[in-house]
Design goal:
Length: about 160
C-alpha cells in the first residue's frame, strides 16, 4: 500500500470545488511548539476542535469560542466541514473528541485535571484570520483556565 499524497489530493479537491488558486499550506520558520515544563501529572489539559458546536450559527459568522466541558454535545455537526467523508466519519465522537479518555486520565492521576472548558475554532481558509483573530481568543481562554496542554483536533 502506498502512502496518500495529501498535498496533491487537497490541491485537486480545491480545484474541483472551483477555487481559483491552490490551497497555501502554512509554513513556519520556527516551530510553534513549547515543550512541557512540568510533569504530565501536574498538567491541566483541554481540547481545541473544529467540530461545530452551534450549527445554527451560519458558517460565515462562526468565530472562536469556549464551551464548558459540562455542555459537550453527544455529537458535533461536521457535515459542512470540508474533509474526506469517504474514508472516515465522525459517528464515533470519542474518535475525535477524547473527553471520556481524558476524564479517565484525570481519575488515574496521569494528568492533574481537565480544564473547565474546551474550545471551538472555525474551519478557516485564511491563515491570517486564524493567526490574528481565532488563535488569540483561544490562547487567552487557555491562559485564563491555566491550561498546560491543548490537544488540537482539526477535522
Amino acid at each position: 500500500m502506498k502512502p496518500i499524497d495529501y498535498i496533491t489530493r487537497t490541491r485537486d479537491y480545491y480545484r474541483a470545488q472551483g477555487f481559483n488558486s491552490d490551497y497555501q499550506w502554512a509554513t513556519h520558520q520556527e516551530i510553534p511548539f513549547s515543550p512541557l515544563t512540568k510533569p504530565l501529572n501536574q498538567c491541566v489539559v483541554t481540547i481545541v476542535t473544529t467540530a461545530v458546536v452551534e450549527p445554527e450559527i451560519p458558517k460565515t459568522m462562526r468565530a472562536a469560542k469556549s464551551y464548558s466541558f459540562a455542555d459537550v454535545p453527544d455529537s458535533f455537526v461536521t457535515d459542512d466541514v470540508a474533509w474526506d467523508k469517504v474514508t472516515t466519519h465522525t459517528r464515533d465522537r470519542r474518535s475525535y473528541f477524547p473527553l471520556e479518555d481524558l476524564i479517565g486520565q484525570q481519575d488515574s492521576g496521569r494528568i492533574r485535571k481537565l480544564a473547565p472548558r474546551f474550545h471551538f475554532v472555525p474551519t478557516e481558509y485564511s491563515q491570517k484570520n486564524t493567526r490574528e483573530k481565532d488563535a488569540p481568543v483561544i490562547l487567552a481562554a487557555c491562559i485564563k483556565d491555566e491550561v498546560d496542554i491543548a490537544i488540537l483536533v482539526p477535522l
